[in-house]
């Protein structure tokens, strides 16, 4: 059995597999500030790429047609013209491909113009942007190493390219974004036609997913051992072609590798007949493929054990991840017997004449939602004040980029004092924390379509324990979210829909809060924490007198 699994693993060029629950989730990759930074990095690359390719065109005389019999050429031009003839054919083809790559990227930026926020709100646009940035950065690095550009000897340009290169997303980042599309499909039950055409929630991407994109996402899903969606994406791709004899260089992938993904994915799902058919398709394209021959015979022997198990996804092995996905999908809910006990009521706050609309979502530990705490003006202002330091953190200065932070402390220098207004409204809510407590600083966080998922073992180290006291947190939704972004408590079966002006109160030391992926755009939250401290003569809510 181990030998067969080894053979299956060799069928496609996948180097190292990452379990679904072992993926390193980033909290800043798809935030608004970071995506804007990547977009501007691409603009810088396009400007540099244009200069480099222009130099290549001059050097190889690709900018205009010249006659070898032109008698007006001076000696220097004739020398350069000789270089054009001496250049290898493959190098000239690379130059032409780079020019085509540059023109395509410029076309996209021309369409986007100054509507960058609308562009980076669409997950498929983000996927295409990361692919372009990585491809262009590789091409720029290759061109810069050529003889024509090396002759410049400009150390400032070298340092600039080094900084841009450090700001370009890594291969792991690109794979995370690609797999995030799979998770959006899984969590929000997106149809294949809508997702592959780029139409999400009545918003269309600039370009649909290409066959190469679909293949790469299927490959990455297989690499993450999400075999069910690897099959769905690969099977959809096979339906796009009338013939399977597609040249490898036409779309940038091999049909043999595609069927290898399907065959290797069907096997762990116990779909032996489908796995055998996929192996047979490999043999139709490559009759001498010995691995496919061995696998076909092996699957043929297993067909008798095929109990017609329906094709379904294997849940993640990690319990927290499994509950998190189920809560975001809406398939895991609180039992009706318990849910009907929680009702919405008006609770008097610190001001004797002001009542707050309060909804109890869980009793032990307390999870409470306050509705209509603040208006749109306050939410927009605080979100913008939090966005500014995040955006400024992306630019060390006018010349260098760096990664932004996950959260920011808004600097409010306005006459209205929006942050103070929101802080006062949060303090006026009828909290369950018992005085005395230490109040934290109001912070602003931005969540992208990766959501906010973390390992519980790490989270236990985040919660401060000041004198053994409980930590309470208030999360306020500063803006409405077009789709997704629900706040979930996986171990208490609580799912809260984001609404502008709502505030979620919970004990962070007793429960774990996570945020579902934002399907379109980003989500803006403000958070304030309260740390209970022991004091002589006072009993806290978890102590006895």
UniProtKB/TrEMBL annotation:
MF annotations from Gene Ontology: procollagen-proline 4-dioxygenase activity
Listed InterPro entries: P4H_N, TPR-like_helical_dom_sf, TPR_P4H
Residue ranges annotated for the Prolyl 4-hydroxylase N-terminal domain, each copy included: 88-200
Keyword Signal assigned: yes
Keywords: Signal
Domain of life: Eukaryota
Pfam families for this protein: P4Ha_N, TPR_P4H
Signal peptide: 1-16
Segments forming domain Prolyl 4-hydroxylase peptide-substrate-binding: 212-304
Region of interest (Disordered), residue spans: 64-91
Gene Ontology terms: cellular component: endoplasmic reticulum
Keyword DNA damage: no
Protein's name in the database: Uncharacterized protein
């Amino acid at each position: 059995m181990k030998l067969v699994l080894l053979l299956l693993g060799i069928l496609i060029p996948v180097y190292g597999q990452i379990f679904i629950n072992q993926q390193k989730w980033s909290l800043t990759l798809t935030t608004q500030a970071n995506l804007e930074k990547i977009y501007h990095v691409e603009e810088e690359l396009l400007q540099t790429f244009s200069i480099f390719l222009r130099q290549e065109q001059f050097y190889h005389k690709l900018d205009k047609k010249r006659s070898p019999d032109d008698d007006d050429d001076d000696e220097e031009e004739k020398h350069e013209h000789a270089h054009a003839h001496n250049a290898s054919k493959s190098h000239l083809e690379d130059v032409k491909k780079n020019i085509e790559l540059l023109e395509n990227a410029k076309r996209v930026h021309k369409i986007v113009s100054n509507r960058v926020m609308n562009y980076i709100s669409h997950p498929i646009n983000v996927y295409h942007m990361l692919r372009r940035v990585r491809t262009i950065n590789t091409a720029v690095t290759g061109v810069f190493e050529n003889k024509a550009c090396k002759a410049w000897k400009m150390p400032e340009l070298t340092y600039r390219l080094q900084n841009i290169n450090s700001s370009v997303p890594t291969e792991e980042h690109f794979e995370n974004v690609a797999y995030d599309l799979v998770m959006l499909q899984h969590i929000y039950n997106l149809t294949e036609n809508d997702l592959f055409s780029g139409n999400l929630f009545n918003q269309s991407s600039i370009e649909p997913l290409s066959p190469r994109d679909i293949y790469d996402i299927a490959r990455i899903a297989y690499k993450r051992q999400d075999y069910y969606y690897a099959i769905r994406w690969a099977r959809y791709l096979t339906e796009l072609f009338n013939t399977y004899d597609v040249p490898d260089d036409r779309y940038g992938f091999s049909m043999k590798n595609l069927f290898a993904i399907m065959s290797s994915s069907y096997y762990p799902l116990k779909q032996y007949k489908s796995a055998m058919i996929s192996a047979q398709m490999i043999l139709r394209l490559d009759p001498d493929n010995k691995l496919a021959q061995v696998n076909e015979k092996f699957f043929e022997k297993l067909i008798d054990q095929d109990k017609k198990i329906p094709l379904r996804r294997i849940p993640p092995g990690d319990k927290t991840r499994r509950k998190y996905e189920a809560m975001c999908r809406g398939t895991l809910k609180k039992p009706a017997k318990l849910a009907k006990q929680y009702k919405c009521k008006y609770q008097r706050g610190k001001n004797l004449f002001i009542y707050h609309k309060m909804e109890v979502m869980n009793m032990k530990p307390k999870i409470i939602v306050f509705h209509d705490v603040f208006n749109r003006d306050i939410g927009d202002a605080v979100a913008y004040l939090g966005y500014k330091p995040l955006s400024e953190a992306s630019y060390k200065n006018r010349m260098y980029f760096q990664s932004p932070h996950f959260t920011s402390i808004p600097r409010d220098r306005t006459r209205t004092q929006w942050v103070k207004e929101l802080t006062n409204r949060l303090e006026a809510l009828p909290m369950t924390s018992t005085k005395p407590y230490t109040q934290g600083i109001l912070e602003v966080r931005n969540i992208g379509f990766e959501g906010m998922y973390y390992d519980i073992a790490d989270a236990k180290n985040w919660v401060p324990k000041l004198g053994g006291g409980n930590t309470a947190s208030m999360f306020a939704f500063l803006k409405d979210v077009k789709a997704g972004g629900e706040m979930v408590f996986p171990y208490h079966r609580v799912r809260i829909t984001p609404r502008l002006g709502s505030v979620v109160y919970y004990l962070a030391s007793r429960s774990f809060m996570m945020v579902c992926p934002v399907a379109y755009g980003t989500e803006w939250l403000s958070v304030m924490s309260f740390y209970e401290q022991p004091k002589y003569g006072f009993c806290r809510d978890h102590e006895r007198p």
